[in-house]
Amino acid sequence: MSRRQRAERAAMGDPYKTELIKSMREFSHSHDPNTVFSDFIEMCALALSNRFDHPQFDAREKRYMDIVGKYKPEETQRFAAMFAALQMCYRTRVDTIGDPGCPGIPGDGLGDVLGEIFMALELGNDRAGQFFTPYSVSYLMAMMTVGDAASVREKGFVTLQEPACGSAGMVVATAQAMHQAGLNYPETLHATCVDIDQRCVHMAYVQLSLLGIPAIVVHGNALSLDVWGVWYTPAHVMLGWGRKLRRRREAEARSIVAGYAEQPGSTDEPGATGPDLQGQGLTVPELAPSGDGQHHAVEHEEGDVVDAVDADRTEMQFDAQTSIAALFEELTGQATAVKAENTIFDRIEQMSLF
């Protein structure tokens, strides 16, 4: 049996996948299969994004109309039917796995639907080493990593970072493993996924969106740190993961600052900096008295305090007893403080949280 036959047989176990593959092939008489698949996935991603990510609506709506303009009316209707089939495919799978903690999950579970369709249509670039890990392998790895999820329960939630996510099959497998362990993954898992291939970005975004997985999907280069586009899944927006991640980041920063404050040579006097903090390039903002008797941070040209863009953020008040809080505020406002921005995830964290 050829590789194509094996991939196609794996993809044909689901009637919705079968329908999608058949519809894709109906385009082959007049369009390039690679282009059709890419356009379909991008249109799905744009349609989902424009329901929730309003700041990027205009540009993405224009892109959507540009793609639609390449096809005949009957072909755009076929795309709509394909999107409906894709949604039903995921809905059926989510319903099938049952409530968190169910002892057995039938079939392929959530599965890497788009990755399997991609491989069945032979759209991968072998010369570039592009292939999608079989979902059974991803799920085995996820089960070994998650285990009984005791550490997740202790922390409240975990974050997953994928520097070359592909179709996000590993993230989906992790969500299923957490579900199997009795956790509600929309509330306990957040993923940041990066890929240099725009088509993979769209595939990952569509899968994670339709499965209700909170995530930030980035079109970028994890090595050069270039970022060309950021996509927020509906679960990320609707479940308030921006606030949730920011609060953990603030708590971690407080812990770091408290650790420095306890070191010999540190002081709580306004404007003071211990030697180790200076080694990290940190400075404490000056505290100036105001008419209300409180002390407030004085901003400088370098290292200004960065305000959060989220409207629900509470502004921190400074007084003579809160120089540690002042240091924390500067710490969270500087991309190079304590930990240099040396990965693309550090950069996206700054973009998404602030």
TrEMBL record:
<protein>
    <submittedName>
        <fullName>N-6 DNA methylase</fullName>
    </submittedName>
</protein>
<dbReference type="InterPro" id="IPR003356">
    <property type="entry name" value="DNA_methylase_A-5"/>
</dbReference>
<dbReference type="GO" id="GO:0008168">
    <property type="term" value="F:methyltransferase activity"/>
</dbReference>
<keyword id="KW-0489">Methyltransferase</keyword>
<dbReference type="InterPro" id="IPR029063">
    <property type="entry name" value="SAM-dependent_MTases_sf"/>
</dbReference>
<dbReference type="GO" id="GO:0032259">
    <property type="term" value="P:methylation"/>
</dbReference>
<feature type="region of interest" description="Disordered">
    <location>
        <begin position="258"/>
        <end position="297"/>
    </location>
</feature>
<comment type="similarity">
    <text>Belongs to the N(4)/N(6)-methyltransferase family.</text>
</comment>
<keyword id="KW-0808">Transferase</keyword>
<dbReference type="Pfam" id="PF02384">
    <property type="entry name" value="N6_Mtase"/>
</dbReference>
<feature type="domain" description="DNA methylase adenine-specific">
    <location>
        <begin position="125"/>
        <end position="226"/>
    </location>
</feature>
